Amino acid sequence: MPFLGYTPDNTFHTLSKQTIAGDGGTSYTLTNPVVGSNDIEVFVNNVRQDQPYDKRFYYSAGVPRALEDVASVDENGDPVLDENGNQIIQKGLKSQWIEKTKETAHSLLTPTDWYELRKLTKAIDIPANVIAYRDAVVQASETIEAAINSSTTMQEFMALFETVDGTNPPIHNWPEGL
User: Fold this and answer.
1) What span, in angstroms and rounded, lies between the C-alpha atoms of 35 and 21?
2) In a domain, 22, yes or no
3) Which structural domain, as residue segments, surrounds residue 103?
4) Are residues 1 and 73 in the same domain?
5) What pLDDT, on the 0 to 100 scale, is given for residue 44?
6) Where is pLDDT greater, at 40 or 85?
7) I want to staple 88 with a disulfide (CB 3.0 to 4.6 A). Which of 30, 72, 98, 103 is the partner?
8) What's the chain's average pLDDT?
């Protein structure tokens, strides 16, 4: 059966339970080792406490989304094909955000496209501020795409979304509108 993402486990695991009586402290000793974030579940008053994670970058706590495109395969490792016989490719975060960047650039340029058409059909010059704005949008798009493409780790990619000194994060660093 084909699936998306990581290969699911096909084995059963034994679970251990430890009850901790709260004493108002913040540090407790576990009786079983915890290797990864998926090795522990915490319940408070019988309510599961999910580990927080950023859904933009992770499928679940500790399970990152792929940065690069991934060719889909079935459980036997055979390619999963579309109706035309082409292998299905899952777009990674980098491809998804390059596409979003192009869409944003398009939406920012569209309101001034008529200036270009007017210049072509009536030979009326485009105002300098419009030319400067359009050039800035194209430059911003190229800069953002280059930053995305140069990311080789999840940490580098996530840094594109961080605000530095009150400025826009690099992934959203677009010029002010006209």
Assistant:
1) 23
2) no
3) 92-172
4) yes
5) 73
6) 85
7) 72
8) 87
Higher pLDDT pick, 112 / 17: 112
**Ordered DSSP codes for 113-145:** HHHHHHHHHH-PPPPHHHHHHHHHHHHHHHHHH
The answer to the question of residue 74 being in a domain is yes
Residues 51 and 71 in one domain: yes
Give residue 146's Cα distance to chain centre: 16
Q: How many domains does the chain have?
A: 2
Is pLDDT above 90 for 6?
A: no
Residue 61 contacts residue 52 (beta carbons within 8 Å): yes
Residue 105 lies in a domain: yes
pLDDT per residue as tens digits for the range 72-123: 999 999 999 999 999 999 999 999 999 999 999 999 999 999 999 999 999 9
Count other Cβ atoms within 10 Å, centred on residue 141.
Answer: 19
3-state helix, strand, coil in the chain (%, to 5): 35, 10, 55
Nearest to 104 by CA among 174, 42, 165: 174
98 in the same domain as 80: no
Residue 30 covered by a domain: no
Are 73 and 101 in a shared domain? no
